[in-house]
Write a structure and sequence with these properties.
- The chain is an alpha+beta fold and about 160 residues long.
- A 5-stranded antiparallel sheet has the order 1-2-3-6-7. A 3-stranded antiparallel sheet has the order 4-5-8.
- It has one domain (about 25-155): Peptide deformylase (Peptide Deformylase), CATH 3.90.45.
- The mean pLDDT is about 95.
- Strand 4 (about 85-90) and strand 5 form a beta hairpin.
- It starts with about 25 loop residues before the first helix and ends in an 11-residue tail after the last strand.
- It has helices at about 25-40, 125-135, and strands spanning about 45-50, 60, 70-80, 85-90, 95-100, 105-110, 115-120, 150-155.
């Protein structure tokens, strides 16, 4: 496994549409593992392959330690309701903006073993699914803002000091 560099929002790659994965093999397994390690190292909740320069429809999400969702060729099949959320992105560290996301989403894809996965999600998981699947379509959260003036700088969270 490796921690990969995360591309900045200014990179043309993160604005391109990703290709479907045709065959799940060792290279896709390595990509999933690298995405998880990179997401954890960056302190993120989710990561999509285009964020590390790989234009394939692959995402990972981890809301709580050890509960990893890996989806290949994911898609939102239904979205209902609307709510406003404050969202950020690993491609644009230090900034957040208020955007509209669905209250509930239903998504589908396959896992690393090619088994079908269906997820019904609300709250943070729904937001993360929409956010990461947007990345696969070349959409960043800032594209949902009415104006870039709606972006707000946030202070980085302090790292907890190690105790002896």
């Amino acid at each position: 496994m490796a921690v990969l560099p995360i591309l900045p929002a200014s990179s043309p790659v993160v604005h391109q549409k990703s290709k479907r994965v045709r065959r799940i093999d060792g290279s896709i397994h390595r990509l999933l593992d690298d995405l998880v390690e990179t997401m954890r190292a960056a302190g993120g909740v989710g990561l999509a392959a285009p964020q590390v320069g790989v234009l394939l429809r692959v995402i990972v999400i981890e809301l709580s330690q050890g509960e990893i969702i890996e989806l290949i060729n994911p898609e939102i099949v239904k979205a209902t309701g609307e709510r406003e959320v404050e969202e950020g992105c690993l491609c644009l560290p230090g900034y957040v903006g208020r955007i509209k996301r669905s209250e509930v989403v239903k998504a589908k894809g396959v896992d690393r073993d090619s088994k079908p996965v269906r997820i019904k999600a609300d709250e943070l998981l729904a937001e993360a699914l929409e956010h990461e699947i947007d990345h696969l379509n070349g959409i960043l959260f800032v594209d949902h803002l009415e104006s870039l003036d709606d972006l707000h700088k946030v202070e980085p969270k302090p790292v907890a000091a190690a105790t002896e």
